[in-house]
Amino acid sequence: MTTIAKGLEGVLFTESKLTFINGSEGILTHLGIPIQEWAENSTFEELSLALLDGKLPTAAELAAFDAHLKANRMIPEKLAEEIASFPRNVHPMQALRTAVSYLGLFDPQAEDTGEDARRAISIRMIAQFATIIAAIARAREGQPVIAPRSDLTHAGNFLYMLTGKEPTTEQARLFDIALVLHADHGMNASTFTAIATSSTLSDVYSCIVSAIGALKGPLHGGANEAVMDMLDEVGTPDQAEAYITKKLDNKEKIMGVGHRVYKYFDPRSRVLRDYAEHVASKEGKSTYYQILETIEKTVVDRIGSKGIYPNVDFYSGTVYSDLGIKKEYFTPIFALARISGWCASVIEYSRDNRLLRPDAQYTGATDQHYVQLQDRQ
Q1: How many alpha carbons fall within 13 Å on the CB side of residue 326?
Q2: What's the pTM?
Q3: Tens digits of per-residue pLDDT, 69-122?
Q4: Catalytic hit among 182, 259, 266, 322
Q5: For the domain with range 223-322, which CATH number is right: 3.40.30.10, 2.40.50.140, 1.10.230.10, 2.40.440.10?
Q6: Is 367 an annotated catalytic residue?
Q7: Which entry of 66, 203, 266, 313 is annotated as an active-site residue?
Q8: Structural contact between residues 4 and 243, judged by C-beta atoms closer than 8 angstroms
């Protein structure tokens, strides 16, 4: 008898030193360091470098990496022109997928699969993802594309390119924390897809385009958009409990709740909840937060004993919304953070590469013979 692991759940296919998850206890670490400590003390730039190199960088290494990112923020002019010509009604993830593929055409190192080349390409992509996504959003809104600035942090520069306004230090830091929380998360669907493509010895751009395609799905990166749709459907905090109770009674899926790995609170959601509460109270935008608070309490009371709790998508959308970001750009922003984890995982797997070639149990017909076309009923 063969046991089929639906969704590859529980299947080990490689080793990694990057990210560890203990879902039953709500633990997430990068390089052995808890995600809470990364969020409190680090930056997206530092975590990105740590993931790429598998160690905490020195001050000099981080300064050099930051300089490389800033020096590579510009995208080719022809790519910017192409982005401006994209149909405005397409999903931003479609635009991102196409733009990254197009970006690879201008990179003379694109076909080099050596580790040094992959690392250099990764640094450029981490830098340019922010510019590409901001350009897609601006073009989609019919606004002129804004060039990057080298005097702002990675997070601050993205918000500036997106909105045209220099963010406050607090806004930039809040967005930076959100990027840190999303930078890597083990063998999720998009990371696995990137690795599967890499295992064929394909180029890094193909790996990342594959990952973007996987992230686009509503069961992965699109969940935070769905959470905001749910909040709009609920309407007001006083209707939240009845809305969720009805959903639970009907055994309907509640977006942002439950996770394949976590059977306790997603530790990233605990960090974001605190920041969502802070921003909501400070900016006077408490409606969304109050609805989420009620939904969380209702869900935990009803089904928490089954190991179903809010995940990172539950609060991330409200944080982005309070920063003035429209929900259709939430998933590209997920990619903006996850590009670091994708690249780091591709590089790590490449060091001991083996072509991924799983099997499937055949359940079709047997002992059949070809029937000539004229004899078929």
Answers
A1: 13
A2: 0.92
A3: 999 999 999 999 999 999 999 999 999 999 999 999 999 999 999 999 999 999
A4: 259
A5: 1.10.230.10
A6: no
A7: 313
A8: no
